[in-house]
Automatic annotation (TrEMBL):
Entry-linked Gene3D superfamilies: 1.20.1050.10, Glutaredoxin
Assembly mode: Homodimer.
Protein name from the UniProt record: Uncharacterized protein
Pfam families, sorted: GST_C, GST_N_2
GO terms of biological process kind: glutathione metabolic process
PANTHER family, sorted: GLUTATHIONE S TRANSFERASE D10, ISOFORM A-RELATED
Membrane-traversing stretches: none
Species the sequence originates in: Pyrocoelia pectoralis
Gene Ontology molecular function: any one: glutathione transferase activity
Residue ranges constituting the GST N-terminal domain according to the UniProt record: 1-83
Amino acid sequence: MTIDFYYTPGSGPCRFVELTAKTLGLTLNHKLMDLHGKKDHLTPEFIKINPQHCIPTIVDNGFAVWESSVIATYLVQTYAKDDSLYPKDTKKRSVVDQRLYFNLGVLGQRFVDYYYPIWMGIGTPDQEKFKKIQDCFEILNTFLEGKEYVAGDALTLADFAISATIATYDVAKFDRSAYNNVTRWYKKLQSSVPGFEEINGLEKLNAIFAAYRQSRQ
Ligand SMILES: N[C@@H](CCC(=O)N[C@@H](CS)C(=O)NCC(=O)O)C(=O)O
């Protein structure tokens, strides 16, 4: 079995897929994509694989999948020994799905809205957008009130998705110290999920993003 994994270093959605694969014991065939210099994602070969040309993308024995949550749920449903990371029970699954959509449409999107213009040098800090980030950390803190994990009492894909995004917020030095439940949960993942630090570790991410910023100067 060969699963090709088209990735770019530092990407939160790519790290979400890596955490999932690692937990499932799957070996990914890493295919490094240079999105900014060579624009590997816009080549005719890659557009043939993924017309939406986004990363991460996997190709599992000729079958292409993209969008990190879809990749992660595909991997669990295809390869996991049990359904713990993505429960079959419809109520439990709907909570996991809700958190995955929260990560995609709210937590991740608000990062893009506020930080990208600043990082790309095309905008200045917008306090309204910053307040929206604080609002969604408040919501995440509420999800975790009295709970061990973001979708309840068991580790699921939602923890991988959201923690990968939080690691990107950490690179941006967003101060999340006021959100105690988030701090407790994140520390627990750091110490209990195999490969978590190797994949989401702040030092490594800081170096990747610093190199990226330098290459743009
Ligand atoms: N919602 C997507 C986001 C993926 C995404 O934003 N990918 C960026 C790199 S981190 C990308 O591929 N950008 C180039 C493009 O879309 O053409 C996911 O979760 O997979």
